[in-house]
Amino acid sequence: xxxxxxxxxxxxxxxxxxxxxxxxxxxxxxxxxxxxxxxxxxxxxxxxxxxxxxxxxxxxxxxxxxxxxxxxxxxxxxxxxxxxxxxxxxxxxxxxxxxxxxxxxxxxxxxxxxxxxxxxxxxxxxxxxxxxxxxxxxxxxxxxxxxxxxxxxxxxxxxxxxxxxxxxxxxxxxxxxxxxxxxxxxxxxxxxxxxxxxxxxxxxxxxxxxxxxxxxxxxxxxxxxxxxxxxxxxxxxxxxxxxxxxxxxxxxxxxxxxxxxxxx
Length: 264
Fold this sequence. Notes:
By secondary structure, this protein is α/β, with parallel strands linked by helices. The protein is 47% helix and 13% strand.
């Protein structure tokens, strides 16, 4: 299904993005890989080509620099013509109590995770509408479905993505453009190591739950299947996925569980 498709992946320098690059590469896709770290992007690109990717374009991108995104999109489109599949995966996590988190950190999380993602989407979408094809996949989080300790602004940014893309899906209902929201739970990546604390510094350590989470290669295959089937929203992970259903049907019980949980 993905052979020769032009697939743009943000946050492609590690973790879920890297796993997706390899998975799509194995299917012969043409990739556009973006992140801030160009050296790591080159490493991922080499692996994707070895896996079977038809081509790989490296395009550095900082989602916090909103004013540059439209120009980056035009640059990419001039080189590849169109984008068949946009994977909004880039973002940053948080590990700090709400009252110990500076407003600058709150703003940074929204700037990258929410505004960066929708700015890129709005720049890519007109081309999809012109060609009357396209699929936008946004990697959110289970914290986009319910908030937990130490992740107040991260959860807020992910909740915001759900609101935006659910609305966008409704607006595009009479077009061929598809929207998929992917909500991972604990995935064994460096997300907690790179998470920012209340003063903006990196946490620098692996969460126990993250370290025991699903490996990103397994998640990537599940995401590809969800895209192929045109799913609107999917949740992946271990037992933590049950939180979505507990929150919906037994909210008071879920709150008690969450209050007792040692989440970090």
